[in-house]
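Newbie here. two chains, one complex. Structure please?
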Amino acid sequence: MLFLRKPMAFLKKDFLMEVSYRFSFVLQFASIFFSVVMFYFVAKLLGEAPSVQNALRQYGGSYFSFVLIGIAFSNFLSVGLGSFSTSIRGEQMMGTLEAMLVTPTGLSNIILSSSQWNFMFTSLRVGVYLLFGALLFGLDLSSANVLPALVALALTVIAFSSLGIISASFIMIFKRGDPIAWVLSTSSTLLGGVYYPISILPGWLQGISYLFPITYSLDAIRLSLLQGAGFLAVGHDLIALIVFSIVTLPVSLLVFRYAVRRAKKDGSLSYY
Amino acid sequence: MLKYHHMAEVVLQTQGLSKEFTKRRGLSSPLHMFDKVTFTAVRGVDLTVGRGEVFGLLGPNGAGKTTLTKMLCTLLLPSRGSATICGYDLVRQQGKIKSSVALISSEERSFYWRLSGRENLKFFAALYGLSAERAYQRIPEVLELVGMTDAAARRFQEYSTGMKQRMALARGLLGDPEIFFMDEPTKGLDPVATHQLHDFIRDRLVSDGKTVVLATHHLAEAEEVCDRVGVMYGGEMKACGPIRELAGDATLAEYFLSLVKESQVDH
């Protein structure tokens, strides 16, 4: 179990750091509650409209369930895209990156391990979203098929993380103003079906939306959790996510290797 | 005092080690914004340090001491030249080198301030590859060595400058490295803490066969603890040897100032 020692050390350190800011820790869960309440009322307003029910038929017809899953799981998009670059920049700004880099722990290990807490905390946040939704606002997960949803989630994390590693490479060289995360995050939220189904977009925009992994992730997760869809029903989404990961993961690792070498050459590894 | 010509075992050797930084002129020169400007921070350094030696890297600010130290700790890639540390190649065997060296700087922000001293050491012990059992034994040992046992449960942000420096030393000791690179380790320390650190270098590290490369511009510090010194100016190693051989009848301060003045004229 020695290979888990370093990731576990990062997890413990980040947990201790997070809970040392107690008020902020609690506040994050309060903000989830208010977000759920807000979308509950928006859903009440829209819920009865036939056009809304029609557009959401394949997901069960409830806008509240649709949007809650969209918002909750799009957190993984944000964390996958941003957590690697945020971790690097955080350690650079705190001054701890150099101290870590002189240890016999590789930079890839440092960056992957330092992002774990963000993913775990996001999972907790998503759980709280669903919990509030189910306990207080009638989110119906009784027919949920959890296993395909978990597989889709795992593939989502890999796909988004590959893009996040490319984004971190950018931060390593240019320090700020990373356009990759911004473009992907904005476009994914706009076109990926977080707040509304992509079926309401004009045809040409729908075509573009299929370029983003979030479109497949949210479709698979919604179908599994709200309609109890099995692997067969979400297979096309899972295959798209696998193809996306196979293409982007090696590219992201190559880009990252180049960025580290360049930063070591420039001497800018710990600058911010 | 160890003399360089009696060196038992070479643990650090550089040949023509150089570091250049290149950047574009940018908006400061709009007509030539894409032209590259090269700055040489370290130029052709040849250096040999033996096991158990305390080697002082002297020089004014900007002389290249920190850049040389960072290269030898694998934080920077050299532009030219070669180096071996404990027999490992500086570029090709960085992982092995990292297990053999520790960098102790005066940078207080290299710790997590909201964690306790012990929590910081536990985290870095994992990064140094210590198993949980080994860390459980080693952390109290290093805390005891640097006299921080009683303060280990306090948050790092509550420590004085001297305590923070002792924690940096404790972290460096965790992996039991062969070479300690110390970059101005007494910056901000009071005379008592400075003296304690010097004693520690001599009584604990050197007596244990460890090698120390000490970058400093405190000449009195170099005289007190170093076997040999190298004087850097403008990225070049201008002189290297035992203090008495270099300075002769003059004091180290007199010798240093005359060498720097000479180098300024050459530049």
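Moderator note: DSSP finds nine helices and ten strands in chain B. Chain B has one domain: 4-106+178-266. Thread marked as resolved.
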